[in-house]
Write a structure and sequence with these properties.
The complex is a heterodimer of chains A (about 180) and B (about 375). Chain A is an alpha/beta fold and about 180 residues long. Chain A contains eight helices and four strands; from the N terminus they run ααβααβααβαβα. Chain A has helices at about 1-5, 25-35, 50-55, 60-65, 80-90, 105-110, 125-135, 165-170; strands spanning about 45-50, 70-75, 115-120, 140-145. A four-stranded parallel sheet of chain A has the order 1-2-4-3, with helices on both faces. Chain A is globular, with a radius of gyration of 17 Å. Mean pLDDT of chain A is about 95; it is low at about 170-175. In chain B, α2 (about 30-35) links the parallel β2 (about 20-25) and β3. The radius of gyration of chain B is 24 Å and the shape is elongated. Classes of the chains: A alpha/beta (about 180), B alpha/beta (about 375).
């Protein structure tokens, strides 16, 4: 969702995402298809930590074919979209949405893929530049806050004008 | 013509369909096929799970506009395709999936790695086939590609009993398909197009809502021309992102559940909604009875089943987006629409996506 919101797409067929079915685990294999179909274009796969693990085995395909895909993981240790609904509509009862992840950098390296972890905002731009300039596949594991939500949001069944945003959910003490 | 094995016929047919890459994972019932692939002039990419094979074919198709192709063996290989086929089906992506199957004399006996994949995927494929006779193989493949890529695109599955792909037959790739029951509409109704143009020219607050259908139709240039000529702002569904440059002053970004505020406001305030290649999904509409309440709605879509499915529309035009837009554009007048466009620009300034305060993010303790 964040990718859909913040990236400025200029050309047709530059944004590939699972729309109607909203399939977790789509991104990594889809990026394989996209890279092989467009060998001269840079291909970036943006994935959450949950979805990434659903087809994590495809790191082997990427590595074996030396596909220069840049894999960006938004690692918040949570199944974020569901967690957001639990926060907003289920009294913050985070039932089975907090996930303890393995070290993605070590896993990527086990597949012979260069990988780095980024914990600080100040290192973000440098990491992305490094990835874009690197001639092979590379994984960037970005640590992001667990409670970063996707806003604005029209709750299910509400009309388009009844959007929620950050102002609706921030509690006094947190500002 | 020399007799070729079914496996070889399949490869030759793929070459005739201009396929240069396929994604797959071998297994018992497709070994004869993989034997042909061993030295065939088609690139085969080995994945590590059949789900990835169909997603890769899907991503390949979305990013190139060509038909994606994947292969899985029978039984668990085939069932591992289900999620990916449903995914391609929901987003109208042209993909061909070949699945291995038990030999014809064992079908129905619960034989090893046998599964009724046609039955399972019937609701999630545009169409599917089992080739029960070698003489049908080439024709089925030609039809399958035709069905996948024409009209509203979608996934097609072809189930291949292993005795079929081992048996021999004269290879003869048909020149034409004959599907009298399948006649997608490409040309929009002329009167509907003229009516739509009239409404567009008279609208004070028109809005274009462009989706995946614009991309499937390769109609992005026509969309841009329409928006610029008519001076009409454009919003996209998730599937439509990329059809209109998001940095353009007329772009309102994405609409719907997680769309921009200004796109959602525009839907609520517009007096004419020009919907192109969209299906009014619930993630976009929110409450259907409060969606675009002030608007007359024009709906351009290649699939007549989408007309009035979720939202009642006023001027439906069934056909190919590129084709219809090319006919529509000459009728469109350039109207200034200053008031509406100024309102849009003000909204864009006042409600950008990112409004959270920086300090708040830094205060969150996450790791």
């Amino acid at each position: 969702m964040w990718a859909a919101q913040y990236l400025t797409f200029l050309k047709p067929r530059s944004f590939i995402s699972s729309g109607g079915l909203g399939t977790m685990g789509f991104g990594l294999p889809a990026s394989i298809g996209a890279q092989l179909g467009n060998p001269d274009l840079p291909v970036i796969c943006i994935s959450g930590d949950g979805g990434f693990q659903m087809n994590i085995q495809e790191l082997a395909t990427i590595s074996n074919n030396n596909l220069p895909i840049k894999i960006i993981i938004f690692n918040n240790g949570t199944l974020g979209m569901v967690r957001q609904w639990q926060e907003l509509f289920f009294n913050e009862r985070y039932s089975h949405t907090l996930i303890h992840n393995p070290d993605f950098v070590k896993i990527a390296q086990a597949y012979d893929i260069k990988a780095i972890k980024i914990n600080q905002k100040k290192d973000v731009e440098k990491a992305i530049k490094e990835a874009l300039n690197f001639p092979g596949p590379m994984l960037l594991d970005f640590a992001i806050p667990q409670d970063e939500n996707v806003f604005p949001m029209v709750p299910e069944g509400a009309s388009l004008e009844e959007m929620l945003d950050y102002k609706n959910v921030l509690k006094e003490t947190e500002i | 013509m020399a007799k070729l094995s079914g496996a070889r016929i399949l490869i030759e047919s793929l070459l005739r369909e201009d396929v240069d890459i396929i994604f797959g994972y071998p297994g018992g019932k497709v070994i004869p096929l993989y034997d042909e692939l061993y030295d065939a002039p088609i690139k085969h990419v080995l994945v590590r799970h059949e789900q990835a094979a169909v997603h890769a074919a899907d991503g390949y198709s979305r990013s190139t506009g060509k038909v994606g192709v994947c292969i899985a063996t029978s039984g668990p290989g085939a069932t591992n395709l289900v999620t990916g086929l449903a995914n391609a089906y929901m987003d109208s992506v042209p993909v061909i999936a070949f699945t291995g199957q038990a030999p014809t004399h064992l079908i129905g006996t619960d034989s090893f790695q046998e599964i009724d994949i046609r039955g399972i995927t019937l609701p999630i494929t545009k169409h599917n086939y089992m080739v029960s006779n070698i003489k049908d193989l080439a024709k089925v493949i030609k039809e399958a590609f035709y069905i996948a890529r024409t009209g509203r695109p979608g996934p097609v599955l072809i189930d291949l009993p292993v005795d079929i792909i081992k048996s021999q037959y004269d290879y003869n790739y048909p020149d034409k398909v004959s599907l009298p029951g399948y006649q997608p509409t490409y040309e929009g109704n002329y009167m509907q197009i003229k009516t739509a143009a009239e409404f567009i020219n008279n609208a004070r607050r028109p809005l274009i809502f462009a989706g995946g259908g614009v991309l499937s139709s390769n109609a992005s240039n026509e969309l841009v021309t329409l928006a610029k000529k008519g001076r009409i702002p454009v919003t996209n569904s998730l599937m439509g992102l990329g059809s209109f440059p998001l940095t353009d002053e007329f772009s309102l970004g994405m609409v719907g559940m997680h769309g921009t505020k200004y796109a959602n406001f525009a839907i609520s305030e517009c007096d004419l909604l020009i919907a192109i290649g969209v299906r009014f999904d619930d993630r976009v509409t929110g409450r259907v009875d409060k969606f675009a309440p002030k608007a007359t709605i024009i709906h351009i879509d290649i699939d007549p089943a989408e007309i009035n499915k979720n939202i009642k529309v006023d001027i439906p035009i069934v056909g190919d987006a590129k084709n219809i837009l090319n006919k529509l554009i000459p009728f469109i007048k350039t109207e200034e629409r200053t008031e509406w466009l100024n309102t849009i620009q003000e909204w864009k300034k006042e409600f950008p996506y990112l409004i959270i305060m920086e300090s708040q993010i830094l205060n969150r303790n996450s790791f």
